[in-house]
């Protein structure tokens, strides 16, 4: 929509009235049926006597002076109109117009920081006070994430992924992974997929294959990947392993956000997530590698600083890919956020996008570097 569509008067030129015909109030030669000049006094000019203008040197002068009178402001009280040229006041700047060259953070930082601190306090308290409580936090996050994902699939794509077997199977996966290890998680995943197939049979066969495929995808994407956090938690120093996993993922996201917002120019994947830049990715790698070296040296028994560098590099890569994967899903669904449960963050799935694919990466590297005990 161009500027002219905002309703500019068609008879008004840049300097006011564009009619240059003779003024009827000055005795000019006006033919019947011809249009006179448009003047600003409007109805007031018809209800009050016009001031007498003395002749001053010919028709051209009369026309110019009369035009000056007619273009003056409205009469106020009984005073003569001010015939001095009026300077147009500058239009006030719109309060919503963004300042040139100023970058926007793109979200409510106060709300995001407040919610992040609250979640961090709950996680740390449950992680170091009693491990099963933190296991319950994982289960709640998984169930809420599944609800957000299946709700968006139903709203935007009319895909009916059955939530009940997914929620029950997802909780079983996390608990089995903590109690029985990887074998227990795989068994729970297999039974969850079978439950999705059977549950969907209670409805008409139309789009059966589509719905069960979406259900099995949801089971793998949310609860199965989250089970690797439970596998880390089951180790003797599981609380410190989970804390390292959380720190590295958060630091990677923070480094990408801060560096990309300040220095980002070259797009990383413009068709998937236009806000991400290559400079932001470098910031994620740098921040995560430094944090990884510190965490492996100070928090993990038997860990080496150089192992932390490799761990940080892998976390930056997996967190970025996870973020892009979630962006791809949301772009396909035509939504900005998966939910609105967390002010400043979106939904639970908008916070799990980097954590879920990073969990198996950290678990595997921890097993390789320091073992699974």
Report on the structure:
The chain has 373 residues and is mainly alpha-helical. Among the domains are: 124-234, no CATH class; 236-373, no CATH class. Helices cover 61% and strands 3% of the residues. It is built from ten helices and four strands, in the order ββαααααααββααα. It has helices at residues 44-47, 59-70, 109-129, 131-157, 163-199, 208-233, 238-263, 278-298, 305-333, 348-370, and strands at residues 12-13, 16-17, 267-269, 273-277. It has a two-stranded antiparallel ribbon. Strands 3-4 form a two-stranded antiparallel ribbon. A hairpin with a 2-residue loop joins strand 1 (12-13) and strand 2. Helix 7 (238-263) packs antiparallel against helix 8. It is globular, with a radius of gyration of 35 Å. The model is unreliable at 2-51, 53-83 and 92-102 (pLDDT under 50).
Strand residue content: under 5%
Q: How far apart are the termini?
A: 65 Å
Structural class: mainly alpha
Number of distinct beta strands: 4
Q: Radius of gyration, rounded? A: 35 Å
Mean pLDDT across residues = 80
Number of helices: 10
Question: How is the biggest beta sheet arranged?
Answer: 2 strands, antiparallel
Spatial sequence of strands, sheet with the most strands: 1-2
Gross geometry: globular
Low-confidence stretches: 2-51, 53-83, 92-102
Please give the share of residues in helix: 55-70%
N to C succession of SSEs: EEHHHHHHHEEHHH
């Amino acid at each position: 929509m161009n500027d002219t569509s905002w309703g500019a008067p068609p008879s008004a030129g840049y300097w006011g009235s564009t009619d240059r015909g003779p003024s009827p109030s000055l005795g000019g030669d006006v033919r019947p049926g011809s249009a006179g000049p448009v003047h600003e006094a409007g109805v007031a000019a018809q209800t009050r006597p016009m001031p007498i203008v003395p002749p001053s040197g010919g028709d051209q002068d009369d026309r110019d002076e009369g035009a000056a009178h007619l273009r003056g402001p409205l009469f106020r009280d009984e005073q003569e109109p001010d015939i001095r040229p009026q300077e147009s006041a500058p239009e006030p700047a719109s309060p919503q117009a963004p300042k040139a060259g100023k970058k926007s953070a793109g979200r409510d930082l106060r709300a995001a920081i407040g919610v992040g601190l609250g979640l961090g306090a709950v996680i740390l308290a449950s992680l170091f006070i009693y491990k099963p409580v933190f296991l319950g936090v994982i289960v709640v996050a998984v169930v809420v994430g599944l609800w957000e994902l299946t709700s968006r699939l139903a709203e935007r794509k009319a895909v009916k992924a059955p939530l009940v077997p997914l929620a029950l199977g997802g909780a079983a996966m996390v608990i089995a992974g903590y109690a029985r290890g990887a074998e227990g998680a795989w068994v729970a995943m297999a039974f969850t997929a079978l439950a999705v197939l059977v549950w969907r049979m209670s409805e008409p066969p139309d789009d059966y294959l589509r719905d069960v495929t979406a259900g099995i995808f949801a089971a793998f994407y949310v609860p199965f990947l989250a089970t690797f956090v439970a596998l880390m938690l089951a180790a003797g120093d599981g609380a410190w392993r989970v804390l390292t996993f959380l720190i590295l993922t958060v630091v990677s996201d923070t480094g990408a956000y801060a560096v990309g917002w300040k220095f980002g120019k070259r797009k990383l994947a413009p068709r998937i997530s236009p806000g991400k830049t290559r400079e932001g990715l470098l910031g994620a790698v740098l921040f995560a590698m430094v944090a990884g070296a510190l965490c492996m040296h100070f928090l993990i028994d038997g860990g080496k600083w150089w192992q932390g560098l490799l761990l940080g590099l892998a976390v930056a890569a997996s967190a970025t890919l996870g973020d892009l994967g979630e962006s791809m899903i949301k772009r396909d669904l035509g939504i900005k956020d998966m939910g609105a449960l967390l002010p400043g963050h979106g939904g639970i799935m908008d916070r799990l996008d980097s954590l879920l694919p990073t969990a198996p990466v950290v678990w595997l590297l921890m097993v390789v570097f320091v073992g699974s005990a």
